[in-house]
Amino acid sequence: MHGRLKANSAWGLLFDSDRANVSSMNRYGSFLVNSSKKTMDLLKYLRSKFPGVAASDSKERVSSEFFQYKKTFRFGFPSQPSCLACDEYSGFIAIGTRTGVLKVLGQPGVEFMNDTKNQLSFASLFFLPKEMRLVAFCHDQSFHLFGMNLRDDRYCLDHMKKCSTVGRLKQVSCCCLGVYNGARCIFVGTESGNVYSLNTRTFEIVDCIIYQEAIAPRISEDDFKLNPGAVEAFAVNPKDPNRLLLGYNRGLIVLWDFGLGRACGTFVASHKVESLCWHDEEEKFCSSHTDGSYITWLPKTDTTVQMDTRSPFGPFPCKSITKIATHSSRRHNEDYLFFIGGMPRAAYSDRNVISVQLGEKQVVFDFTSKVLDFSIFTADRETGCTEPEALFVLCEEEFVAIDLLSDDWPCWSLPYLQPFHASPVTACFYLSDIPRATFSRIRSAALKRAPKDRTFSVRSWPVKGGHCNSESSPPCLDLLVTGHEDGSVKFWHGTLPAFPMIYAINSALLFEGYNDLSEMDTDPDEWPPFRKVGSYDPFSDDARFTVHRICLDSEGRWLLVGGAAGQVSLWELCDETVECSIKVTDINLVEETVHFEWKGHDRLKLRNECVSFDPGFRLVSLVQCFPPASITSAAVETDWGLIAFGTAHGYAVFDCKNSKVVLRRCLLSATDLTPAVTVSETTISRYKSFKKSLRESFRRKRKPHLSGDSSAKTSSSLSPQRNKVCNNYEAGLQPMERAIEARSETKQLGSLVRFISFAHVSIVPGHSLSPTLWVGTNAGVVFAYLLQVPDEDSHRIRADVSCILAKEIRLRHAAPVLSVYFIDVLGSSHSTDRNDHSGVLESQRIVVCSEEQLKAFSLPTLKPLRQKYRLTAVEGTRIIKTQMVCLKCSSVDHNNSQRFLLVLTNLGVLTAFDAYALKPILSVQCIPSYFISGVLSAVLTPHGEGFYLLSSAEWQRFSIASSYSVCFDCSVDLPNNDRSNNEANSPTLELSPLVGSFSESPPSYGKQSMSRFPETPNLTGDDSVSDYLSQTDNVEVGTYG
Question: Could you tell me which SMART domains the record lists for this protein (predicted)?
Answer without folding.
Answer: WD40
